[in-house]
Amino acid sequence: MRTAKARPMARQMLVFAAVGVINTMTYYGLYLLFLARLPYLAAHILAFAVSMTGSFFLNARFTYRTRPTWRKFLLFPLTNATNFVVTTAGVYAVVDVLHAGSRLAPLLASAAAIPVTFVVSRTIMLEPARRGGGPGGAPATGRERVGRR
Fold it and tell me: For the chain, what is the radius of gyration of the CA atoms?
């Protein structure tokens, strides 16, 4: 039997993954668009910044159903830093430790990074009581909506 806490967590994980797919497609589309006028590195940086900003707002609204704040916005790049560290370590482990092929290593490492990135993202986006770490460890029962006062 699934607990009440597990259902929202499973939903959040699925929505987080969907936002990741949307973010990746947005990044790539913007990269190609900017590449028509800018050098590739500038196109990459600009597309990355715009798609990460979009990812922040999509995750706030749909994944965690929380109000976006400047504090959360400024901490959100830590999710990408976490993803980078975990995938880099994962690629190294797959190729140099496990002696597996380098072609699939990024995919395996990325799959391993998703749950770690989700935990970091959830920690940044939700208040302790909404993560289940409030007084007595009880999860919050109300849903906070973006834009509601």
Answer: 17
Look at residue 79 in the predicted model and tell me its pLDDT: 93
Segment 25-53 mean pLDDT = 94
CA 86 to chain centre: 13
Can you tell me the distance from the alpha carbon of 148 to that of 131, in angstroms, rounded to the nearest whole number? 20
d(CA 16, CA 124): 14
Q: How many CB atoms are closer than 10 A to CB 30? A: 19
Selection from 1, 33, 2, 19 nearest residue 65 by Cα: 19
Cβ-contact 144, 138 below 8 angstroms? no
Which two structure tokens, joined as six digits, stand for 7? Answer: 């259902």
- CA atoms of 125 and 123, how far apart (whole Å): 6
Cα dist from 44 to 25, 31, 51, 69, 104, whole Å: 13, 6, 10, 26, 23
Residue 31 has pLDDT above 60, yes or no: yes
Residue 3 φ then ψ, to 5°: -80, 165
What's 138's DSSP letter? P
